[in-house]
Specification:
The complex is a heterodimer of chains A (about 475) and B (about 220). Chain A is mainly α. Chain A is about 75% helix and about 0% strand. Chain A contains 14 helices and no strands. In chain A, helix 1 runs antiparallel to helix 12. Chain B has two domains: about 55 residues, no CATH class; about 130 residues, Cytochrome c-like domain (Cytochrome Bc1 Complex, Chain D, domain 2, Orthogonal Bundle). Helix content of chain B is about 45%, strand content about 5%. In chain B, strand 2 and strand 3 form a beta hairpin. The N terminus of chain B is likely disordered. Classes of the chains: A mainly alpha (about 475), B mainly alpha (about 220). At the A-B interface, helix 1, helix 6, helix 7, helix 8 and helix 9 of A face helix 2 of B.
């Protein structure tokens, strides 16, 4: 913050101390995240391939689509994205509050138990013990463990914030504070009403979509936006465009996102006004989305050339742009005229991946490219491999989205015509399903490249090698 | 480990090669906020959007009732339902309604009326459909179980009873439709016929069997 060299020195020393405190819990969370990313990738590929080639691995009950697909979703959500997201969240809050990460031993224990819980839940799903509630397929006892772990994460993050050593609370901190308050509540409340007796029948469906939509809306989105708000100005070295836009964006997100989930039930047997509230809230999401998009874009203007050098910036900017795109698409899809075509089609799957992958996952990749070298003191080992990671996952995602969006739209138009036999519709979607598997293969290659990069870095760290390597992409800060 | 952070730290911009390759030292400061104002146009746009939201909420509120599920007011919804059970009874009107009701049958008997070989019998080109309407009405009202010969093949499955869910007019409509759809060319069925058979068999709760129906048919 200061102008003199001693201030800068002091800043670097304080960063060093904070990163030292974050090292074990954050690296453990992120390494576990990468493991679940690979695990979920394999499941994803199996599920995708089955859709056009149903004979594939069809004679094992535990590998049938109905089990592999929810197993994929849950390992990605609770394994990859949540664990890595928690790593990012803990590190960001500590860096921004300028205090060391508290409850370090508990956090490592949380990470260990978390892995076992996700493993147990996944095995339960594959063994046929899924609860069949979308996004909450883990058995209730696994959910109880995860709920308790979320509370510990919440305590650590709140404690970091409360002990902060800086006067000015930066916008990323608002989002992180929101996420750790909203999500543990959502997770526990969602599980209680759905697995308990609180909601059944139509009310259960409503609670289900309130939960599922909010996992993205008030857990992954605030973490992703906090990271984007941090890394964009951090990497390019200029202030965020407008504090007032930040304020407007945060509070309108907090106000509207929570209501939007019932747009998943348009046309269903739930009271009309419940559907309408979801539609209106979805449209109101234009306000935070446009606000954040302007704020990020105006900060980036004049610095787009840095995308060439910084892997962090590349992934984060890709993610931030996807956030705008997925949100605009989501708002429009909530409109009845669009929804009556797209509901129950592959279009929705493309949309969900645009949110969870093109936005959340890409932002998490970008964050890890920044955080891990600082925690391990090792540089990334290969520029070309980082580029390969970016292009395989980026192009894979674009192909995935374009294919399923077009295929899903055609599917929806055909479904609305009662004279078309169902099998004809299934056959029409086949080429699009193949494009999805091809895209999945591309993304899988990217994930294995990334896992190799992370694995190599951690190996060098553990064996005390590779200290002298220069940053792979020259040209300044990464 | 990065414990080797040097004593003399220099600014990230002018760091030498040692500074450059310690990532923690090679950083800009904690991000700060700029204070550009929010564009006025944007504020107007957002107000317009909120206005639209208010209008839409009112227009599609369904009077905030728990029993209105579709856009359009309650009166229209009720009138629709009423019309299905007590609208016109001309063969054309019945066939139009019947096509809609048939959506519930198509899951098994298929949109093309050919059924699924070995599981669900066809409705197209069989005596069971184009023969006496009484038999068909009975099947719809109470269901059918056990072996049955249809178009030269034997089937053995449970046809559910629809008497509880469909009104007399809906049953007459769907039967009129299947008797005239595809290659079938049998005459319409009247709601009154359904009504009288419903009364006649009001006490019955079991499904019919094919042999029962055959014997009733020969008795008529």
């Amino acid at each position: 913050m200061g102008d003199s060299e001693t201030d800068l020195e002091r800043d670097a020393q304080s960063r060093k101390a904070i990163d030292a405190s974050a090292r074990l819990p954050v690296v453990f969370m992120m390494a576990s995240g990468v493991f679940w990313l690979l695990f979920g990738t394999v499941l994803a590929f199996i599920a995708s391939f089955k859709l056009h080639s149903p004979w594939f691995l069809a004679d094992q009950a535990w590998l049938t689509f109905g089990r592999v697909r929810p197993a994929h979703l849950n390992t990605m959500i609770y394994g990859w994205a949540s664990m890595t997201g928690i790593g990012v969240l803990l590190w960001l809050q500590a860096r921004l509050s300028r205090v060391r990460v508290p409850l370090r031993k508990s956090l490592i224990a949380v990470g260990v138990v978390w892995n076992f819980a996700v493993l147990a839940g996944t095995v339960a799903i594959l063994a046929g013990g899924s609860t069949s509630v979308e996004w909450l397929e883990f058995p209730p006892w696994v959910a109880a463990i995860l709920g308790a772990l979320f509370v510990v994460v919440m305590a650590a993050s709140v404690l970091t914030f409360v002990r902060r050593n800086v006067e000015h609370v930066y916008v990323s901190q608002w989002y992180l504070f929101g996420a750790v308050f909203w999500f543990p509540f959502l997770y526990i409340a969602g599980n209680l009403v759905i697995h308990g007796t609180g909601a059944s029948g139509v009310a259960e469906a409503t609670a289900n979509w309130w939960y599922a939509h909010n996992v993205l809306g008030i857990w992954f989105t605030p973490i992703g936006l906090a990271a984007a708000y941090y890394f964009i100005p951090k990497v390019i070295g200029r202030p965020i465009h407008s504090y007032y836009l930040s304020l407007l964006g945060f509070w309108t997100l907090a106000l509207f996102y929570n209501w939007a989930g019932t747009h998943h039930l348009i046309g269903g047997p739930i009271p009309l006004w419940v559907q309408t509230v979801g539609i209106v809230a979805s449209m109101m999401m234009f306000i935070p989305v446009i606000t954040v998009a302007i704020n990020h874009h105006m900060t980036m203007v004049g610095h787009f050339d840095k995308l060439e050098y910084s892997p962090t910036l590349r992934f984060i900017v890709f993610g931030a742009m996807s956030y705008t795109l997925v949100s605009v698409q989501g708002s429009l899809t909530a409109l009845r005229v669009v929804n009556e075509t797209t509901h129950f089609t592959h279009y929705t799957i493309a949309h969900a991946h645009l949110g969870m992958y093109a936005f959340v996952t890409m932002v998490l990749f970008g964050s890890m490219y920044y955080i891990l070298p600082r925690l391990t003191g090792r540089e990334w080992s290969s520029g070309p491999l980082i580029r390969a990671h970016f292009w395989t996952t980026g192009l894979g995602m674009v192909l995935y989205w374009v294919g399923l969006t077009i295929g899903g739209w055609i599917q929806g138009q055909m479904l609305k015509n009662p004279d078309i036999a169902f099998i004809e519709i299934v056959q029409t979607t086949l080429p699009y399903l193949w494009s999805r598997s091809f895209a999945a293969a591309l993304m899988s290659v990217g994930h294995f490249i990334f896992a190799y990069l992370v694995g190599r870095m951690l190996y060098e760290w553990a064996t005390d090698r590779g200290k002298d390597r220069l940053p792979p992409m020259l040209g300044g800060d990464q | 480990m990065s414990d080797s952070l040097r004593e003399s730290q220099e600014s990230p911009d002018e760091g030498d090669i040692h500074e450059m390759h310690d990532p923690i030292a090679r950083e800009f400061e904690r991000p700060e906020d700029g204070y550009q104002p929010i564009p006025l146009t944007l504020i107007f746009l957002f107000f317009a959007l909120v206005g639209w939201g208010g209008w839409y909420l009112g227009a599609y509120s369904g009077d905030w009732r728990v029993d209105v599920f579709y856009p359009g007011d309650r009166a229209t919804a009720a009138a629709e339902a009423q019309k299905e059970s007590s609208g016109g009874t001309s063969p054309e009107e019945l066939a139009t309604l019947g096509k809609r009701v048939y959506a519930q049958c198509a899951a098994c008997h298929q949109q093309n009326g050919k059924g699924v070989a070995g599981n669900f019998p066809p409705l197209d080109g069989t005596e069971w459909v184009t023969g006496p309407p009484q038999t068909l009405i009975r099947i719809l009202l109470h269901g059918l179980e056990g072996p049955i010969q249809v178009a030269g093949n034997e089937y053995n499955a449970q046809m559910p009873a629809w008497g509880g869910q469909l009104s007399d007019r809906q049953i007459a409509a769907v039967l009129t439709y299947i008797r005239s759809a595809w290659s079938n060319q049998a005459g319409p069925v009247k709601p009154a016929q359904v009504e009288s058979l419903r009364k006649e068999s009001a006490d019955r709760s079991a499904s019919w069997t094919a042999s029962e129906l055959k014997s009733l048919e020969s008795g008529q």
